[in-house]
Amino acid sequence: MPMKYDRSLSPLLRLQGVARDFYDGRQNRRVLHPTDLALFANALTILSGPSGSGKTTLLTLMALILNPSEGSVFVKERDVTSASEDARATLRLRHFGFVFQNAALIPALSVIENVLIAATIQGAAASQAVVRRAGSSLDRLGLSDFSRMKVERLSGGQKQRVAIARALITNPEILLADEPTGNLDRRSGLEILAIFKRLHRDGRTILVVTHDQAVAEHADRVIVLKEGTVAEDRNVAQPRDAEEETQALADEEKTR
Ligand SMILES: Nc1ncnc2c1ncn2[C@@H]1O[C@H](COP(=O)(O)OP(=O)(O)OP(=O)(O)O)[C@@H](O)[C@H]1O
Ligand SMILES: [Mg+2]
Known about the structure:
alpha/beta
């Protein structure tokens, strides 16, 4: 039974009137219109909407990767909008895990090297504890047998799982994942989703971008973006169970 999140608590992350413009070669174009949005502890939220509606833009604004053109960003109710790049990097490493659209792994490195790279960038130069944490998160994601294998030899679903393991290396409270189930078949997509559900049950706050309407019904909350505006933001009364469905699909395949 998924735990319910509480919108009356103070949010982990809050956007207030956040907008973003991009220069398209001729002029500045508003890609995200002024948006108020909060992420609460212990929620699994799905963000969907058509291609080009601003999902990646919104996610990178939330992760303090991109600066807003307008508005303010709060992490645990602290205004971090005009924090220095160093301060933002520290906040990012302390609070956020990010799974990029297309996994963004380094093909020529092994699985374990890709997972450790975030820790290395952080300056923690792969201590014993970090290597152990990487090992156990690969284990949990069913990747321990692939640890020394070059990433270029993995399947799409396996790559996505490596990207998730990498995002988890700093043990973040907030995990933001940009289309981690894109380009996967239904079964692999459900497996990835089941991983997010487990991480959510462990108490993490998760936002997942997806185009897949079936995926959306697994969440506590669904946000839909259209042309840079939040067109919908609703709670899901009874989220579907990805683990159960993965099992059912596996059983179905066995009897075929
Ligand atoms: N760095 C950039 N420079 C200029 N324009 C950009 C930049 N990043 C995004 N855009 C534009 O902003 C709009 C929204 O892009 P965004 O990547 O946020 O969409 P999306 O919803 O993630 O789409 P998709 O589902 O295809 O990933 C698009 O029109 C895109 O071309
Ligand atoms: Mg995108």
